[in-house]
Amino acid sequence: MGRRILNDALRTMVNAERRGFATAKLQPISGVMISFLNIMKHRGYIKKFEVFDPHRVGKITVELQGRIKDCKALTYRQDLRATEIEKYRTRMLPTRQWGYVVVTTPNGVLDHEEAIRQNCCSFYGGGR
Questions:
Q1: How far is CA 125 from CA 24, 51, 54, 81, 82, in A?
Q2: pLDDT tens track for 8-64
Q3: Domain 5-64 carries which CATH code?
């Protein structure tokens, strides 16, 4: 596991989807992971999730919708301006019609559409 908590959790969800499971159990957890799952729930990629014991190692049970094809986390930091988000999205996503890029910003964890709407000036890290 180590420092790649979000990437390992996303791989667990993708593998559970490919095997046809209805739920996935994620452990350990982080605040960024919870924010990411809120975005996935809002966009309809997962049904719901439940956090158990968030003050210790913690566990999350995620009810899968069957819509996740691929999901990855980029572990290196990238600085982007709000005007560069669209170019970054077309470079990172396989198609223009589907998918979201989720970035961590000074305003919190946002998907690319919300980040453009809020016109955040600087982005730290990125994920898809």
A1: 25, 25, 24, 12, 13
A2: 998 999 999 999 999 999 998 888 889 989 999 998 999 999 999 877 788 999 999
A3: 3.30.1370.30
119, amino acid identity: N
Q: Is 55 left (phi over 0), alpha (psi -120 to 50) or beta?
A: alpha
- For residue 100, the tally of other CB atoms under 10 A from its CB is 19
Query: Domains of the chain: which residue ranges?
Result: 5-64, 73-127
**b/e burial code for range 30-43 (CB count within 10 A of at least 16 → b):** eebbeebbebbbee
Rounded to two decimals, the pTM is 0.77
Q: Which residues contact 7 (CB under 8 A, 6 or more apart)?
A: 72, 73, 75
3-state helix, strand, coil in the chain (%, to 5): 35, 30, 35
- Determine the Cα–Cα distance for residues 68 and 46; give it in Å rounded to an integer: 8
Please state which CATH number belongs to domain 73-127.
3.30.1490.10
Longest dimension (CA), the chain: 40
Give helix 5-19 / helix 31-42 axis angle, nearest 10°: 40
